[in-house]
């Protein structure tokens, strides 16, 4: 996975978590979520393609928690699949 995309996903995950903090959800919070979700979708499109499960789940959901879970799953998976493990598996 490209390091640039990984760091951007981490940053977007934190932005979504901040939007999901229980308080009076305003229209600006929802607009912020939609913008952040679009950025996440663009990264997922580049990394995995539009037919990937990750892309489809994020595209179909309206829940910030679900988007954060998908992003955290990708981050944890990328930690397990480091260049060293790829070299060993070849």
UniProtKB/TrEMBL annotation:
Query: Would you say which domain of life the source belongs to?
Result: Bacteria
Organism per entry:
Desulfosporosinus meridiei (strain ATCC BAA-275 / DSM 13257 / KCTC 12902 / NCIMB 13706 / S10)
List the protein's name: Uncharacterized protein
